[in-house]
Amino acid sequence: MKTLLLGLALALIALPVVAGDQPSHQSASGWFDMENCAFCKNLVEDPGLLSHMTWESHEISNGAVTIATVDPAYRASYEKAGKAMETLGNKMMNGEVNPMTVKMCGHCQMFGQLMMAGARMEEVHGDLADVSLITSDNPDVVKMIHQMTERDRKEMAMMEGRGHDHPDDHGAHKH
């Protein structure tokens, strides 16, 4: 479970793109909602965390890879947010919390669907970056992973005011 929820945390790191000084951490569509999503809200508890991270996500043949970096001064906040998300996920999985009562943004709902569909989550914690892989041997699940990754990039581009992915962006977002 820890791997799955840290994978979720890394996937959600996409949101720092617009964190900066903006008062809202929500996309117009609700795909991302760091203010109201029970998982995402943990990433904005430390107001400086998101602006001290980088994130990028790329499709691979059988899923997606996400690479996140965090300034060393914010590593404790990053780990605290991941632990809070892990705790909530564990409570949902063991029946202590009814998942139907947990408010989640569109991204987190899709991530949950991928977990239920059997997507594999792997992660590597390095000194300079954390890498997460979400993969599957099932072509239908791979398609869902690719759709989520593409939607994440499009929603972030809209939140940044670009309206679409910049062709030279390749999924990378720096803060």
Helix content: 25-40%
Compressed to H and E, one letter per element, the order equals HEEHHEEHE
Beta-strand level of the residues, as a percent range?
15-25%
Shape: globular
Low-confidence stretches: 1-11, 13-23, 165-175
Q: Please tell me the overall pLDDT.
A: 82
| Overall number of strands | 5
- What structural class is derived from the secondary structure elements? alpha+beta
| Largest sheet, spatial ordering of strands | 3-4-2-1-5
Number of helices: 4
Distance between the termini: 29 Å
The largest sheet, given as strand count, sense and whether it forms a barrel, is: 5 strands, antiparallel
CA radius of gyration:
15 Å
Primary descriptors:
five-stranded antiparallel sheet; 5 strands; 18% strand; globular; disordered N terminus; disordered C terminus
Please characterize this protein's 3D structure:
The protein has 175 residues and is an alpha+beta fold. The protein is 35% helix and 18% strand. The protein contains 4 helices and 5 strands, in the order αββααββαβ. Strands 3-4-2-1-5 form a 5-stranded antiparallel β-sheet. Helix 3 packs antiparallel against helix 4. The longest helix has 21 residues, at 139-159. It starts with a helix and ends with a strand.
Please write out the topology.
Layout: H1 2-12, E1 53-60, E2 63-70, H2 75-93, H3 106-116, E3 120-125, E4 130-135, H4 139-159, E5 172-174
Antiparallel strand pairs: 1-2, 1-5, 2-4, 3-4
Helix pairs in contact: 1-2, 3-4
Please outline what is shown here.
By secondary structure, the protein is α+β, with helices and mostly antiparallel strands.
